[in-house]
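Checklist before submission:
- one chain only
- standard amino acids only
- sequence pasted in full

Submission:
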Amino acid sequence: MIRRAILTLALLATPALAQDAPIVSERATFRVTTFATGLEHPWGAAFLPDGSMLVTERPGRLRRVTPDGRVSAPLAGVPPVEAASQGGLLDIALAPDFVRTREVFLCQAAAVPGGALTRLVTARLSPTNDALTGLRRLLDATPAQESGRQHYGCRIAFGRDGHLYLSTGERNERARAQRLDDLAGKVIRLTRDGRMPDDNPFVGRTDARGEIWSYGHRHPQGLAVNPWTGSLWEAEFGPRGGDEVNVIRRGGNYGWPVVSFGREYWGPRISRETSAPGIEDPIHVWVPSVSPSGIAFYDGAAFPGWQRSLFVAALNTPGLVRLSTEGDRVTGEERLLWGKTRLRNVVVGADGRVFLLTDAPDGAILRLDPV
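Returned file contents:
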């Protein structure tokens, strides 16, 4: 498949989202409601069975938000994080059998001898929902890097195979994405207890890390399983242009920095090539950038017209992107709430309402309600 760039218009930003005024989009009419406030750079979110939500704050706090939008005090037992630049406490995911085990998984930036790295940990949520217990480290995306505190990646998703998938950024050191003896710039596949599955593509190679599932990624902050095909989709930041959506395949090389639509921040192209033999092409590209962060497929009941969509939280230009899909293809794009506020993540509630985490020191959770 030939890579294709989607050229976009930069729209003027307006200071805030209107509350309660109906918004008519291509396939739905909705209102934006402020669901919860008082969160500092909220990053990851996961719904508990009772309808409340666990939300991470990048400075290193984990909070529970009740179904009526009340924000708890910080939970106890959260691991210390490297909360500098883009680092901190990042994604959270519940185990598939959370109802029985109460196990949660967290991705964070961690300071270690030699610098900082992306770390995956697991713990159990207390019966009172106010503490983590039994904290255990599952993986450090080594080697640590002394310079810079950017590009940690850090999204978590569970596949239909029961295994855990984790995205890691290349820490703003491009060559790391192509190195197979390095866990940066990768999608990693693990058993839920942190072991490498025997059928991972590079198991047994002395020149490669067996945890790697795919490589050649820049800064992947979107990871979700397509509920209709079972495939793993990923979204990653390009530099100046060249943001991508990819369908992740076993052992695939996704090209960074060998091929790219992106440019250096000072102007010239990163690569003369946008496609090459042996490299997986993205299924969607943005030029200029939208800075895609969290992603979520929509299969809820509240908005029938949004069925089979992939929502993408965008940071710059700020807003929400809705991609219509068929199987493992993108068939269209719609911009919602465009130019309004930076969005770090998007999650879908059990009732089909859409929740948006804003990226700000005085961050909030917004809810899209059907009209």
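Reviewer check: Helices lie at 98-101.
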